[in-house]
């Protein structure tokens, strides 16, 4: 057993990539302070900003909401019920309970009610994998709610493992367009809210540890459609690298941000944004992706896999 670096009591909490042993109380302090440092490092937001946190009911997003509120930020929640049977029912209950616990406002989108179809129902008519059109829908509602309710910042709980797996995927195919957008803060533009990822430097294990120590009741199951996804495959590979050489993940990501991102950031394509003729949301085409999906569902047409999502 090691000793807590701060108070010296015996502990089995050890973070290899930082060579840091901490007791539960000091781990919580460390995790929250590290999030605050990330917020400052990337100038994500300030105490005067109104933040909408996208909360799935999982460990990362509930922890993020908890940390932001504890740090004194004005942060409300948005939960999107995807209609994936028990998984979505439990996710919503956990999110509602948590909102009550911290006494913050929670907005709820119910896809079945608000979009007219749940993810499993849309899946019947779609060629794309569920995670792809589900991501498009989630981004659409996040952006819509941020604008409708006057939040100028939209926070998601993407963690280091999420960022590194996407970074690896995009690097292996040298997708400069996607790489040029992979930064933990994207400014407000074209009617889309500022997007921030305050957990971008916290690993999945660190966030899970925080959730347990802060006694957050989260849904442990993963979305049933996530199984077999490419990002999950990359996450496993990266974990193997990390195990052999602790710190690899954080180095790969941090060095990308400091050395590579400045070189490619201006390669971000400039797009002209219109208002969707049907719903008024920002889009690159005449009719936004969501309205096209809705029409296709109504008229039973299949979506083509070449359609691009509107939201960055
Ligand atoms: P994912 O795309 O599932 O990896 O999720 C990325 C981020 O989106 C999470 O960290 C959450 O902040 C947010 N998110 C995911 N699912 C939901 C949901 N059902 N409702 C609201 N936010 C979500
Ligand atoms: Fe969207 Fe799984 S399909 S979270
Ligand atoms: Zn201690
Ligand atoms: Zn539209």
Plain-language structure description:
By secondary structure, the chain is of the alpha/beta class. The protein has one domain (24-273): 3-Layer(aba) Sandwich (Rossmann fold). Helices cover 47% and strands 12% of the residues. It has twelve helices and twelve strands. The protein has helices at residues 24-41, 59-70, 85-102, 111-115, 119-123, 130-148, 160-172, 176-179, 204-213, 230-244, 248-264, 289-299, and strands spanning 2-3, 10-11, 14-15, 20-21, 50-54, 74-81, 106-110, 153-155, 185-186, 194-196, 274-275, 282-283. The strands form four sheets. It has a six-stranded mixed beta sheet with strand order 7-6-5-8-10-9, sandwiched between helices. It has a two-stranded antiparallel ribbon with strand order 1-2. A two-stranded antiparallel sheet has the order 3-4. β3 (14-15) and β4 (20-21) form a beta hairpin. The longest helix is centred in the middle third of the chain and has 19 residues, at 130-148. The N and C termini lie far apart (46 Å). The model is unreliable at 302-309 (pLDDT under 50). One zinc ion binds at residues 4, 6-7, 9, 22-23, 25-26. Adenosine monophosphate is lined by residues 54-56, 60-61, 78-80, 82, 135, 138, 156-158, 162.
Brief summary of the model shown:
This protein is α/β, with parallel strands linked by helices and 312 residues long.
């Amino acid at each position: 057993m090691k000793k807590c670096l701060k108070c010296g009591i015996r502990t089995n909490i050890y973070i290899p990539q930082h060579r840091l042993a901490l007791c539960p109380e000091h781990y919580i302090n460390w995790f929250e302070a590290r999030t605050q440092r990330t917020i400052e490092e990337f100038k994500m937001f300030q105490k005067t900003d109104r933040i909408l946190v996208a909360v799935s009911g999982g460990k990362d997003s509930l922890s993020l909401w908890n940390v932001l509120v504890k740090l004194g930020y004005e942060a409300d929640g948005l939960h999107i019920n995807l209609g994936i049977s028990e998984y979505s029912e439990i996710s919503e209950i956990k999110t509602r309970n948590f909102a009550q616990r911290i006494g913050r406002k929670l907005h709820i989108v119910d896809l079945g009610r608000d979009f007219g179809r749940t993810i499993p129902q849309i899946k019947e008519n779609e060629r794309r994998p569920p995670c792809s059109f589900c991501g498009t829908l989630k981004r659409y509602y996040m952006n819509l709610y941020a604008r409708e309710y006057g939040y100028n910042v939209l926070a998601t709980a993407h963690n280091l493992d999420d960022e590194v797996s996407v970074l690896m995927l995009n690097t292996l195919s040298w997708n400069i367009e996607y790489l040029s957008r992979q930064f933990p803060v994207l400014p407000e533009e074209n009617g889309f809210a500022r997007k921030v990822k305050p957990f971008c430097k916290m690993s999945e294990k660190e966030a899970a540890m925080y959730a347990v120590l802060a006694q957050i009741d989260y849904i442990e199951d993963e979305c049933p459609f996530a199984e077999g996804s490419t990002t999950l495959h990359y996450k496993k590979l990266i974990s193997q690298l990390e195990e052999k050489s602790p710190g690899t993940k954080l180095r790969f990501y941090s060095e990308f941000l400091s050395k590579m991102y400045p070189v490619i950031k201006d390669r971000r394509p400039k797009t002209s944004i219109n208002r969707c003729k049907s719903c008024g949301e920002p889009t690159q085409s005449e009719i936004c992706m969501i309205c096209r999906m809705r029409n296709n569902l109504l008229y039973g047409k299949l979506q083509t896999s070449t359609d691009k999502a509107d939201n960055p």
